[in-house]
Design goal:
Strand content: 15-25%
Structural class: alpha+beta
Distance between the termini: 46 Å
Order of helices and strands: HHEEEEEEEEEEEHHEHEEHHEEEH
Number of strands: 17
Strand order of the largest sheet: 6-5-4-3-8-9
Length: about 400
Amino acid sequence: MSQWGARGRALAGQKYDEILHFYYTNVDIATVDGARPIRVRIGSDYTPSAGCPARLTSVQGDWTSSAFGAQVFSVGSYLEMWPDAIAPTPPAPPADPTPTPVGWTAIVYSAQGAEIARTPTRDASMDSALDANGLIKVSFKDSYPNMNQFRDSVRLLVNSTGSLDQVNTLPLEYYLLGVVPSEMPGSWHIEAVKAQAVAARSYAWPRIDGTGYYDIGASSASQNYKGFLHEYPNSNRAVLETAGQVITYNGRVVAAYYHSSSGGYTENSEYAFVSPIGNPGSVLGYCRGKPDVDANGLAYDRNSPDYYFESVSFTMAQLSAIYATSDKTNVGQITDLTFNRGVSGRAYQVVMTGTLGTKTVSGGTFTNVFNKNRPGGDNLVSNMVYLTPVGQGPGG
């Protein structure tokens, strides 16, 4: 799905289900259990220090912890995880004189900073399920002040590198409240935002498989998720009014890929997801490329800032020097470029021939190397690129 295209279609009067049926071919809309928990890794490899402890604070709601059994702690109290080598000294000997050495300690403090409890553990959570609207602040994410509060439960666990990973567990629908406005402006037309909500829910659902210690990441490598403080009324409405809805193909929930702009034409999956040397990937029946234009032939995403881009002019010698910077693309002085293109016109594979031989690369590699060393102009934001000869001018 093209997000800017969805916006254009919504502004043209299309409903969210119509938008989804255009971008995902031969699909149905089904319903799943939006209350199902999803585990989101919101951070990794954190090492606490005296100046910045690994602290979780209850912002709203009393809470319990996996490390402290049924004990209930009050709102405002906080949990810290420390390596034993730098853990604060306890105010009195522990109740168990010979605890099992595990290398890490969880400590709970009152809102006023008095120690309440401690235990040796490599895995501790703050669970605010005692309050349906419970909120947890991850204090060591304060450098991202609009992304440091999360609903339901946050877990701190020591990973294989000896540092802390952070996992937010919450119902799928609550997760989407923090995803949708992180992926698409929450203020956009409600029908476009509804389409985004259903696509995001569909993308997440197949990843909830119960394996490992988390289901999905929080960055653009999966879906952007920024937690409670990023929620927005219009996108909250979109999630609520499409509750549980997912996209299915042949009865299975699809991985509903989406992107910013289509440039007026979407692409087949096999040309969008290729090997490192550009060989076509898997054919997905619901990801079929087609013109993304209105009745007048105008692209629905034409107002996207990435709809059109253009580099500065360069000579073939300059282009050869750009591609000589990478072993993947260095063919010496370039003598020929062959662009193999998908149905949209995007270059999924480029065959480069030069004085040092021939190399075949994916369209993504071709554009990435150019962007890192380009002589000026715009970044190539997609593989829908063409080389246009420039006249030499009078007397050339």
